[in-house]
What we know:
binds protoporphyrin IX containing FE; single chain; mainly alpha
Amino acid sequence: MDYTVYKLLHMIGIFSLFLGLGGMISYSKGTSPNKALIGAFHGIGLVLILVSGFGLQAKLFIDGFPTWIIAKLVLWLIFGGIVVIAKKGILKGAALWSVMLLLAAAAAYLGIMKPFQG
Ligand code: HEM
């Protein structure tokens, strides 16, 4: 697959993930009429991001796992599990939404700037 196709899939994955996350944390306490749909967007988004992320890594000939990619993988795991934090009420309301936006910004920063090329 072409580099630009991977990039497009990476973006579609991100949009899908955040649609799902937005839906999940809006209903973290109750049940949503769109529960299955929300779960699907979350899951499909995570899978698309991961597959296209490794595709981008390959197309950019990035050897091994530089720190910025490891950091993105950690963020990916957090986006997978943040729902549990929402459901347990550990983080809620404006704090939860702000943390999610900050983590998304961090993932974008890492992907664009590619810092600590160790
Ligand atoms: C989990 C949430 C993630 C988000 C929100 C995210 C977001 C982004 C964004 C916004 C870019 C910049 C695209 C651009 O330069 O126009 C990017 C690039 C990139 N991401 Fe991700 N990413 C995520 C996870 C991952 C993961 C898990 C991997 C690796 C397996 C990955 C690998 C990459 C690579 C290699 C690039 C560089 C693409 C390039 O320079 O053209 N990303 N990511």
